[in-house]
TrEMBL record:
The keyword Signal does not apply. In contrast to class I sirtuins, class III sirtuins have only weak deacetylase activity. Difference in substrate specificity is probably due to a larger hydrophobic pocket with 2 residues (Tyr-67 and Arg-70) that bind to malonylated and succinylated substrates and define the specificity. The lineage of its organism: Eukaryota, Fungi, Dikarya, Ascomycota, Saccharomycotina. Zn(2+) binds at C139, C144, C222, C225. Residues 1-327 form the Deacetylase sirtuin-type domain. One of its GO terms (cellular component) is nucleus. The active site is at H131 (proton acceptor). Substrate binds at Y67, R70. Keywords: Metal-binding, Mitochondrion, NAD, Transferase, Zinc. It comes from Candida theae. This is NAD-dependent protein deacylase. Binds 1 zinc ion per subunit. NAD-dependent lysine demalonylase, desuccinylase and deglutarylase that specifically removes malonyl, succinyl and glutaryl groups on target proteins. Has weak NAD-dependent protein deacetylase activity; however this activity may not be physiologically relevant in vivo.
Length: 328
């Protein structure tokens, strides 16, 4: 590890152009769950199954409850030192730098506390949030397409209030009984969403707040046309914002080649994000992976032009980047 770290830092100091590819693992130690593996669940649902246009079309109330909980969790969370290390990197004037983030939690855009200066917030010009943001809302009407950014209201509508707490009686402010249109949902009728009943089946398991059936009129509505609003995130099967994808292509392909790509807390399973690592390598750049789960060969330095730093990105990143960004 020390030899690898020394080699990495030597390369880091020589690098003129750096890309970072960020995934859910960066926010894990801020308390936000990752998508894949045992944590990738919301109540009895697989998070990935809820992140689809089909799930929203079939039951927008169910999907809004999931996103309302994610908004609440993200607002409760604080950026960690890993976020701050990337923010610091983005403010080095002589460095050509870009963060490609798959995260929608907004933690790179916030400070841990108000006493910290603005170099603890990522330079927005160098941050491409390719999967959108939990705090953007979009109108679903084709005729309108209104987009509302930086909406931090919580809950977004009164019926979404109880969805903030995942478990019964845990941190719950007050109980809100059925408001006419809101009822408990006994059995999930949705085929495409996989239900895993094992979670709630033992007496020692925590009891989830029931998922409700919510009438569309009680979900967030468009201020312009009254249409149904949806979360401003990219769902599976949807296109990524063309301007961002073009910007990334230009950054990687044009001008001098990137010297380094930092691959932080991502399983690298989603295209096109996972293609950027190979593209930087093809241009002659090196790869540094920060993840709690890395192949031994990589950790031991046996893979050409790849360093692997195994552990919590929130701890390892500030340490590894220290020669450039100073102590955090
Ligand atoms: P995943 O859940 O697929 O992967 C998270 C990665 O973070 C895994 O490789 C973990 O080993 C690693 N990890 C967990 N805790 C960590 C920690 N403390 N420090 C470092 N690494 C840690 O999440 P993503 O790769 O972000 O897309 O998933 C990519 C996309 O798939 C998401 O943006 C989302 C999802 O479905 C959409 O919703 C379109």
């Amino acid at each position: 590890m020390n030899k690898q770290l020394a080699e990495f830092q030597e390369h880091l100091l020589k690098s003129k152009k750096i890309v970072a590819l960020v995934g859910a693992g960066l926010s894990a130690s801020s308390g936000l769950p990752v998508f894949r593996g045992s944590q990738g669940m919301w109540k009895n649902y697989n998070s990935i199954d809820l992140a689809t246009p089909d799930a929203f079309y079939i039951d927008p109330g169910l999907v809004w409850q999931f996103y309302s909980w994610r908004r609440y969790s993200a607002l409760q969370a604080k950026p960690n030192k890993g976020h701050e290390a990337l923010a610091k990197l983005s403010h080095i004037p002589e460095l050509k730098y870009l963060t490609i983030s798959q995260n929608v939690d907004g933690l790179l855009n916030r400070k841990r506390n108000d006493e910290l200066d603005d170099t603890y917030i990522h330079d927005p010009r160098k941050l491409y949030e390719i999967h959108g943001s939990l705090f953007t809302l979009k109108c679903t009407s084709f005729m309108c397409n209104h987009v509302e950014r930086n909406n931090f209201h919580q809950p977004l509508t009164p019926v979404l209030e109880d969805t903030e707490f995942e478990y019964l009686n845990k941190g719950k402010k007050r109980s809100r009984e059925d408001e006419g249109s809101v009822q408990e949902q006994n059995i999930d009728p949705i085929d495409i969403i996989s239900r895993q009943d094992t979670f709630a089946s033992t007496s020692s398991s925590p009891q989830f707040q029931p998922v409700k059936t919510i009438d569309e009129k009680n979900l967030p509505r468009c201020p312009i046309c009254e249409g149904l609003m949806r979360p401003g995130v990219v769902w599976f099967g949807e296109s990524l914002p063309l301007d961002l994808i073009t910007g990334i292509d230009n950054f990687i392909e044009h001008g001098e080649a990137p010297d380094l790509i930092l691959v932080i807390g991502t399983s690298g399973t989603v295209y096109p994000a996972n293609s950027y690592v190979e593209r930087v390598k093809l241009k002659g750049g090196k790869v540094a992976i920060f993840n709690i789960d890395i192949d031994d060969d990589v950790v031991e330095g046996k893979v050409d032009r790849v360093w692997g730093f195994k552990g919590d990105a929130a701890e390892l990143l500030p340490l590894a980047l220290e020669p450039l960004i100073g102590k955090i």
